[in-house]
Amino acid sequence: MSKNKFEIGFIKIFLLFFIFAAISLALVFVLIIPSLSDYKRVNLHLSKQESLNQSLKKDIKIKKDKLQKLINKDNRADLLKSNFHIDKLKAYMDKFFKETKFSKIKITNKKFTSYEFSVETRANTPGNFYNFLDQLSSYKNIIKIDYPVLMQAQKDGIKINFNVKIYKNLNH
Fold this sequence. Notes:
Blueprint: H1 2-77, H2 86-93, E1 98-109, E2 112-123, H3 126-135, E3 142-154, E4 157-169
Antiparallel strand pairs: 1-2, 2-4, 3-4
């Protein structure tokens, strides 16, 4: 009988352990599995938010760059206040060309004053003209080069004809 009691006690312990394991497994499925689906849902939402955040950061950076360009353009508006002197323009052009001549001076007054010239000059290479165009943004007035730009090869270099407009604010 003691052997039977021992077997019954062993079976009881085994059954209790099995019931404990089953209840634990049931609790895992009842409590943890729904939490995992919530975790997945929240993680997906977080991923979407991070993606949206990155997209908004890009948009903000683009808009900041545009704003900075506009601010820089406004700084260019200060150039309208600069006084214009044809001698200073000729001296500036002499850095790039030789024998610079201005003709057909025309002054118009609308919202601002514009001076229009036809320029005839000589350069050693076309690169001198392109360097001049690149450096126009650093000049103290707003200058626009108008078409046609005519380049003609000659013995002593290249003869270049083009039109120039200089803009100045009426109040200054």
